[in-house]
Structure formats: structure tokens, C-alpha cells
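Record type: monomer structure entry
Structure origin: computed from sequence
Chain ID: A
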Amino acid sequence: RYVRKEGSSNIMFRHVPEERLLFVTDIFTTLVEIRWRVMFLIFALSYILSWLFFGILFWVIALANGDIKDPNTEPCVFEVRSFTAAFLFSLETQTTIGYGFRGMSENCMHAIIIVTIQDVMSCFIDTFVIGIAVAKMASARKRAQTVGFSNRAVINLRNGYIYLSWRVGDFRRYHLVEGTATAQIVRSTMHATGRVDVTYEDLVIQQKDIILATPTTIYHKIEPGSPLYSMTYADLQRADFELVVSFTYTDDSTGILHQTRTSYTPNEILWGQLFQEMIRVGRKSYRVDYNLFHRTEKIHVPLVSAKEFE
């Protein structure tokens, strides 16, 4: 498949020039796209390593000032006379715990400068971590999982013409502001030399701009100019192409632009099938039965192409 059923691209990139440098250059997007467990590991290490780094600095300052060897000297940091105490002071400073046991003195200006640098750096780390977490939770991929397509596309008659259709629905109760449906026929051609050509053919969609308050069936009229105009039922069974469909929309709750995609291979396009009606009108509201979202029923459709049918 060119596009998997859940919408991700089935493509693997190799030998990308300066690939690692590109990930580091756009580190924010890289962290948003990685898995949660890897992100938590990176964030935990960023805090622990920063505590350890500044703890070493405070320990070196205590060594240089003689706080560890002579407990009677005026310390740079009160009650820091070992590496463990220096690490705990670094942790308490960066997390603003403030137990009141360890604290800065006025004897060492360089220690005061180190504390100031650590406080500023802790603000940057907190801002970065919170921004990544919020961006990851509000990711368009998560919202796209609540908007889905039917498992199959169907070919049937409508108003005396042959149509290709599929369903799209929003499984959440919050409606979308606006959405646009698109579809393409994707074909891959392998040449004897090993070269692969990927071609794209756009399908014209009837009423592609949709407010997805209820599940909607999207129609493509198979007419002159359509890539499927001369295709019969037998041709469809032998065909080697992929129907890639997408729905781009704006979430009413967040105002963020999202896109949901899927694809249909020829064996997932059912000839002579019709989607079952899933919307009922009640006394006070419209009722939608999602048990019928993927269900189809057989109808009579000639096995000839749309061109021959006309």
C-alpha cells in the first residue's frame, strides 16, 4: 500500500543527507513526533543531568573554599560539606523546594552566579517540557483518530449514473467547523530498468465542502474525464491502483487544522453495493447508529463500465 488504512504513509527514507542534523535543527518537532516513553526518558534525563551538573559545580566550589575539610570556615553554601549534600542543594534549588536546611551565603560571589544560572536554565527546561507535552497532547494525529472512513468503498447507481462513494464520520460529539474531502488514484509503475514511476490522478468529488455534523457519504461521479470511466467490473478485479482519500477539517474545540487519510485497493471497492442508512429522525433529534457505519447491502448494478452504461 502507498497509504496504510490508518492513514500513515508506507514509505521508508534511506540515505537522507544530513538526516541527524535535520532532526537536531528542528528539535521541537522531533520531540513532538517521538513516542511518549522516549520523550519521558529524555525529559527525566534532562532534569537529572542538570541537577548532577550543578551539583558537581557546588561540590567543586565547596572543595575550593575548604568547606568540606574544615567545618569551621565560613561556607559558600550552608550545610554543603559532601557531594551528596551538593547534589541535594542543586535539586532543591532547581525545583524550588526550599526545605530551609541548605542555603546560599554571601561569602562566594561565584556560587551566587552559579545559582542564578541554574534558576534561569530551570525556567528554560520547564518551559520546553511543558510546551512539548501540550503540543503532543494536542497533536492533530490524536484528533484524526476520532474521524474515520468506512472500511470499504462502493460503486452503485445514483440518479441514473454510476458513482464511486465512501463514508466519513466524526466519532466525537463535538462537530467540526468545516471540512474538505479529496481523492486521488495512485498508480505505481515498475520499469525493466528498476525505475518506479508514481502517478496521481485527481477525482472530482460532488459537494466536497462538508460540515460533518453527521456521517456523510462522499460521491465521485464516474463520467468522461474520470480515471474510472472505462473500467468494467472485470477490469476492477485485475486493476493495480490505490484510491487515496483524505478529509481536511478544522476542530471546533481547538481551532486546529487536521487531516484524516485512508486508502482503498481494488479488492476493497465493492461493485453493486450501497451503504445502509444510519440516520433516523426522532421527535427531538436526529439519531445516528454507528453500528451501520461500515455495513453495505447489495443492489443491481450492471457489470459494464460507465462509458458502456451511458
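Annotation 1: The CA atoms of residues 25 and 88 lie 33 Å apart.
Annotation 2: The mean pLDDT is 86.
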